[in-house]
Design a protein that fits this description.
Blueprint lengths: L3 E2 L24 E8 L2 E9 L10 H5 L2 E3 L2 E5 L5 E4 L1 H14 L7 H14 L11 E10 L12 E10 L7 E6 L16 H16 L4 E5 L7 E4 L3 E6 L2 E5 L9 H12 L4 E4 L3 H10 L2 E8 L3 E10 L2 E4 L6 H15 L9 E3 L9
């Protein structure tokens, strides 16, 4: 795999204040791009960050044939960039591609693309623990046609940007009982743009009413808990951690996977099952609801301070989040190199990866 590299002549790096890097505000200098045509990927290149050229009737724009991933790169104690379990993101990306009738990306090509752009943007990786270089692999359909059929051509790209944690304080959530993000059999398990577009209205209304995000409930009964905004949900009731099972309407979060495995490893009781909002309300009333938190790549852990469901207002304990803090510290410690990687979850980016071009 030969990658053609065009270096920028106008780096933005000196303009960045790494003490103030809100999630998604800045992009780094370069991006990886490749194209799909005649049933094969080719034209592998790293170029200065730039706009894409899309035909107005491309199928990405007309029929939302677009998917993406979210992952992070950090710097280890040895000075080498590290990726945390990129194989999970690659597998999920290809599952999204299959659901949206898009071509898969061979794992070896995907991995080298990730490593190459990470090494190219190594100086953009924040040094502060908890911050990271956020990587956004994306695929868009490029064929110009109004026929409602899958595209025959695609562009895959990876861009990056430095970021601090998405939520830096406990969040207030409200259950959504009108709008629907996803249903079993739909595209909720795929990271496709339409799912996120469909969530905006409910999220906007929640913020207008003083909440940070919403908890999605499965229609038509609006009782079964799905996820919270862009995050998977976890609850700690008494001595048990519970999280909704995957139903086709719940995103198969990579951070969710880390957490479940860590909890089992530490012999903390964890249940993956259907969860109904009435169970959470009852646990709050009887005092057994100890913690609630979101899990996702951007924030790792988002502590939940309040949940409103109809006329029920639940206040959760603060500053005593034993389980969620342990999970957060485990992941950030692994990324920072202060916790030994006994599970072999970290993938180092070799300094010679770009010499293949």
């Amino acid at each position: 795999m030969n990658i053609n590299i065009t270096q920028t002549t106008n780096s933005k790096l000196a303009d960045i204040d790494f003490n103030d890097i809100p999630f998604g505000k800045y992009t780094s200098d370069h991006m990886f791009i490749m194209d799909y045509a005649d049933e094969a990927w080719g034209d592998f290149r790293i170029v200065p960050y730039q706009a894409l050229m899309l035909d107005p009737q491309s199928k990405a724009l007309q029929y939302c044939q677009c998917i993406f991933e979210g992952m992070k790169a950090s710097i280890g104690l040895d000075g080498a960039p590290k990726l945390l379990r990129p194989d999970l993101n690659i597998k999920r990306f290809n599952l999204s591609a299959e659901r949206m009738c898009m071509p898969s990306v061979p794992e070896d090509i995907f991995m080298q693309a990730l490593k190459s752009i990470t090494l190219c943007e190594k100086n953009w990786i924040p040094k502060e623990v908890g911050s990271a270089l956020y990587l956004r692999p994306t695929m868009v359909a490029t064929e110009s046609s109004l026929g409602v059929t899958p595209s025959s051509t695609y562009t895959f790209y990876i861009y990056a940007g430095p970021a601090q944690p998405y939520f830096n304080k406990p969040v207030k959530l409200v259950t959504e009982q009108t709008f629907i993000r996803a249903v079993p059999g739909g595209t909720g398990e795929a990271k496709t743009g339409g799912n996120y577009g469909a969530s905006l209205k409910a999220g906007q209304l929640a913020k207008q009413n003083g909440y940070d995000q919403i908890i999605w409930l499965e229609s038509p009964a609006f009782k079964k808990i799905q996820e919270a905004g862009m995050m998977n949900l976890f609850f700690v009731i008494a001595d048990t951690v519970i999280t909704p099972k995957l139903s086709g309407a719940v995103l198969k979060g990579t951070t969710r996977t880390y957490f479940i495995e860590i909890l089992k490893e530490k012999n903390i009781k964890v249940e993956v099952r259907d969860i109904y909002i009435d169970e959470i309300v009852e646990a709050s009333k009887n005092g057994t609801l100890k913690e609630a938190f979101g899990a996702g790549t951007a924030a790792v852990v988002s502590h939940i301070a309040e949940i409103t469901h109809g006329d029920v207002h639940m206040i959760l304990p603060v500053d005593t989040e034993k389980i969620s803090n342990m999970l957060y510290n485990e992941i950030t410690g692994l990324r920072a190199g202060t916790i030994e990687d006994k599970r072999n979850w970290l993938v180092s980016v070799e300094e010679n990866i770009l010499t293949l071009s």
